[in-house]
Design brief:
mainly alpha, Preprotein translocase SecY subunit, three-stranded antiparallel beta sheet
Length: about 450
């Protein structure tokens, strides 16, 4: 293993890419130490915990805080993080499938994809302004109104100029992070935006461990629950890696045809369908939209009914949460993976699935396989998503600690780490070095 790690730094180009990536990630973390003028960063995290408490709003707050690298609780220049760009990317991913002009543009090769990326950058700016406005007028105002006036000077907070300055500062920070991620993607190693999100998640781990070790529990109880958390952490990581790499490989046979005296074609390859085709998107959609019923019911005075959606430890909340994950898993896969289009492309290129007639029969077969694979992926996502609720209730640990055992955090970190290892492996194998990770028995 040590020899494989040494091989990574023996390739000059790969070594330079890794050093550049680490340097830019360090710049990313330094930006979280630069506060918005007028913000007291020493007390804003405690104020946020007291204000939101252990409720489903804390889960939604934690979701956005995950993508911002913990910046929402710091009042820093990078408080918005990369979330506006992620939102714009999701919007254009959906629009590409429903707007014919964008769908045609996406099929124009690299030039079309560059055009869509440019539109995504343009859309990020207004999203930054809107989200920055809600951060200043929503989060900061609620913290000041909640008796935490030391966070922001009330006279300064009520001035129009300070609000405009704060919103522009948050927008500038996000645009800089977007540029930073693109530089990592182009000149570094791995996907820059994903690495920024992963770095923000990992940076919260030491603080979560420190809060757990400083809790008021008895030492024996703390050690027992800590060992259980460690074992479950390793087990969940193994499950996430196993499912993330898992795929249903559909055999595809290329048709044979003659060119002069030669017979070409006839190769056999596979169409891989990922088990977790939707990634983390169903969990994000379910977490965000599940807050709406509780908010509306609370607004009209039905506090009892609203409590079902606001208490993430309740049985009904888990049922609704899991059901929405199943729904959005099928919704996302149906939208992004279109069996009819795949079948038509196979027919045009003279390929077919052995035993299945080309055209409509192939599309029906692919749709049937996709539905079954999606069921397995949705079950996996639902299990991973409710793991934090289970441990937060059974082991009485804080939500900030249990989120590292499951939920969006573990899914993002595992998938980004696997992608990073694959990128490093490709550089090593290109130069006739042994891969960074040992292959399993029987792997080809």
């Amino acid at each position: 293993m040590i020899q494989r790690v040494m091989n990574v730094f023996r390739i000059p180009e790969l070594r330079q890419r890794i050093i550049l990536t680490v340097s830019l990630l360090a710049v990313y973390r330094i930006g979280f130490q630069v506060p918005i003028p007028g913000i007291n960063t020493q007390t804003i995290a405690d104020a946020a915990d007291k204000q939101f408490g252990e409720s489903s709003w804390n889960q939604l707050f934690g979701l956005f805080n995950t993508f911002s690298g913990g910046g929402l609780t710091q009042g820093a220049l990078f408080s918005l993080g990369i979330m506006p760009y992620i939102s714009a990317s999701i919007i254009f991913s959906l629009l590409t499938k429903v707007v014919p002009a964008l769908e045609k543009l996406s099929k124009d090769g690299s030039s079309g994809r560059k055009k869509i990326s440019q539109y995504t950058r343009y859309a990020t700016v207004p999203l930054c302004l809107v989200q920055g406005f809600f951060i200043v007028q929503g989060l900061f105002r609620s913290l000041v109104a909640g008796g935490q006036a030391q966070i922001v000077d009330p006279d300064l907070f009520n001035s129009f100029g300070w609000k405009v300055m704060a919103i522009l500062a948050l927008t500038t920070g996000t645009i800089f992070l977007m540029w930073l991620g693109e530089q990592i993607t182009e000149h570094g190693i791995g996907n820059g935006i994903s690495l920024l999100i992963m770095a923000g998640i990992i940076s919260r781990l030491p603080a979560a461990v420190a809060r757990y070790t400083s809790s008021a529990e008895e030492f024996s109880t703390k050690v027992t629950s800590g060992l259980i958390l460690l074992v479950m952490f390793v087990a969940v990581i193994w499950i996430v890696v196993f499912i993330t790499k898992g795929q249903r490989r559909i055999p595809i046979q290329a048709a044979r045809f003659s060119r002069g005296r030669r017979t070409v074609g006839g190769q056999r390859h596979y169409l891989p369908l990922q088990v977790n085709q939707a990634g983390v998107m169903p969990v994000i959609f379910a977490s965000s939209l599940l807050m709406i019923p509780g908010f509306l019911l609370g607004a009209i005075g039905l506090q009892g009914a609203a409590g079902v959606f606001n208490d993430y430890s309740s049985w009904w909340y888990v049922v609704f949460y899991g059901s929405m994950i199943y729904f959005f898993s099928y919704f996302w896969n149906t939208l992004m993976v279109q069996p009819t289009e795949i079948a038509n492309n196979m027919k045009e290129h003279g390929s077919f699935i052995p035993g299945i007639r080309p055209g409509r029969r192939t599309a029906e077969y692919l749709e049937r396989v996709l539905m079954r694979v999606t069921l397995a992926g949705a079950t996996f996502l639902a299990f991973i998503a409710i793991v934090p609720q289970i441990f937060a209730g059974s082991l009485t640990v804080e939500w900030s600690i249990s989120t590292f055992i499951g939920g969006t955090s573990i899914l993002i970190v595992a998938s980004v780490a696997l992608d990073l290892v694959d990128k490093i492996n490709s550089h090593l194998l290109m130069r006739n070095y042994e891969g960074f990770m040992r292959r399993g028995k029987g792997a080809r």
